[in-house]
Amino acid sequence: MSVSTNGNEENGQQSPPNGSKPNAEYWIVVHIKPDKSKQGTVEPIPVITDILSHLKGKSGPIHLRHFETRIESEEDDSLLSGGFSCILKIICSEEEEVHDVCENIGNLNSVTATVIVNSETVSRWIPRHISDLDRCANILTKFQPELQTDHPGFHDMEYRKRRQQIVEAALNYRYGNPLPDIEYNENEIGAWRKAYTSLKALHPTRACKEYIQGFSLLERHAGFTPDRLPRMQDVSNYLERTSGFRLRPAAGLVSPRDFLANFAFRVFPCTQYTRHHSRPMHTPEPDCIHEYLGHMPLLTNRKFADFSHQIGLASIGASDEVVTKLATLYWFTVEFGMCHEDDGIRALGAALLSSYGELENAFSDKAEKREFDPKTTALQTYDDVGYQPVLFVCQSIETMEKQLRDYTNSLFAPRRAVYDPYTQKLEMLLMPKLRRKLIDESYDNLKKLSETFPHEF
């Protein structure tokens, strides 16, 4: 069954009164489960009447523009087979009103799932396989040396030429290729050595214990030494063995959506050029000194890697508003996070641990320390050039990971991204199908447990 109402509005959207928010278009998909007590059938008319009765807004009208029903098939979802779906197109000025409508409809006895899909979500491309990350490499140019007159490399044509050669290697990289093997020159090694020795001296009093452990592992197994920069392939291979993450070359500062999409596949986009040798202790842009000294030690930690992976999964298919919030959470945790330890506050953020100046600022009275709470942290503004005036402190990496999981679960999402590490693919699952998948996995694990330890169950 399909019904559309057009009214007098251009393109089906009503012009808002002066001073009010413009109307937006939303699709609501309602899944109605079969009534097993009636041999798998369900009476559609009463259910449809109940659904339509909830199309009411608190602050303004909700206009129905399209309504149709579809029979659910076994291929769609075995949980819904025998039921049907209602698809509604509505016009509303407040997204919160749409969420309230979905929540009220979801409380009906016969409804098993409600989904909001706006036009932005429908048209957004989603990477499905790890090879699709070749298309997730949009670079922001705000820190490029040829564009910024205050960049230390702006007047150094040799540096700019060398950096462009390394950038070209990243731009030409495709999934499945060997990672570029860069032979670093004396200036680059000198900048690395200065940062390495100066920052390592601060680890005992400034870095969290997980970072110190990870740094030691990289020195033993991945070629970390002050005398030469490590090979990206060696670091990537070691991360795969410890946390399941791997590296791929990046040509510069990757856009937030593309950057977080890499995390969903447990991939870290890593630059291979170095900061200018005249400024070895600080850079506002990513470079391999920041990536290796800042990020890699904690990416050896499974809990911290899972935290990064969770941010990435939550970003897949999300609205621009949600991606901005997730990128802000990333900024105040993975880049500038701090944590409590028995002897005081320690740094865990990569931007802190790869910059002498950032560490000094973080442990001074100039930076205000607040307790980490994803809901408030996600709304905090930040400075992506100067030192941070506000930093957030978590109780532990484990606690931070749980807080993030609770926060991302609270975000409304029509579908949830699930990563399969065996096929290196993402699935976008509706909540009923995700619930069934998790139940089946839990059952399989319990079965294996009882078979392995038969006398304990």
Low-confidence stretches: 1-19, 74-80
User: How would you classify the helix and strand content by structural class?
Assistant: alpha+beta
Tally of individual helices: 17
Distance between the termini: 52 Å
Explain what you see:
- This protein has helices at residues 44-53, 95-106, 119-123, 157-171, 186-200, 203-206, 209-221, 232-242, 256-264, 288-299, 302-315, 320-335, 350-353, 356-362, 374-377, 397-410, 431-452, and strands at 2-4, 24-32, 63-71, 84-92, 111-118, 139-140, 246-249, 253-254, 267-270, 338-341, 344-347, 368-371, 390-394, 416-420, 425-429.
- It is α+β, with helices and mostly antiparallel strands.
- The protein has three domains: 2-123, Alpha-Beta Plaits; 130-410, Phenylalanine Hydroxylase; 416-456, no CATH class.
- A hairpin with a 4-residue loop joins strand 14 and strand 15 (425-429).
- Helix 7 crosses helix 10 (288-299) and helix 11 (302-315) packs parallel to helix 16.
- The longest helix has 22 residues, at 431-452.
- Residues 1-19 and 74-80 have low confidence and may be disordered.
- Belongs to the biopterin-dependent aromatic amino acid hydroxylase family.
- Keywords: Iron, Metal-binding, Monooxygenase, Oxidoreductase.
- One of its GO terms (cellular component) is cytoplasm.
- Its cofactor is Fe(2+).
